[in-house]
Amino acid sequence: MTTSYWLVKSEPAKYAFSDLEREGRTIWDGVRNNAAALHLRAMKVDDQVLYYHSREGLAVVGLAKVVRESFPDPSDPAGRFVAVELAPVRALMREVTLSELKANPTLAAMAMLRQSRLSVSPVTAVEWAEILTMAGEAWPPAGHEG
Q: Least CB-packed of 45, 54, 100, 145 within 10 Å?
C-alpha cells in the first residue's frame, strides 16, 4: 500500500496543532472548497499529513496522520461535503516557515504555494522529504522504507 502525503492548514487561534496533540484526534470538517474536498475524499488511513498554521505563525509545525477516511461532514447540513479524522504524530523539531518554503527551489511547484487558498492540498514524496529535512528531521525514519 502506497502512502500519500498531504498538507492541511488551520488558523492556530481556531485549532492549533497543540489542540490536536491535547485531544489525540479530531474530525477535519468545515472544508467547503471543492478542490480541497476532493483531496479529503482521496485521503486514506495512514496517509501522512503536514500541519500548517495559517494567518498567524505561517509555518509547518507538526505531523499528523489520517485515522479515518472520508465520511459525510457532520457540519454540512446539505450533506455535500466530507470530513476525515486526523491524529497527531508529533510536533516538528523546528517549524518551517512560509518564507523558507517559498525560498526553496525544490518546493517551487508545491500545490500549497501555487494554490495558497486551499486548506487541504497534496504533497509529493520529494516535497515531504525536503520539508522534513528543513525541519531537522531524518527522512525516512531509521528502520523504515521511504
A: 145
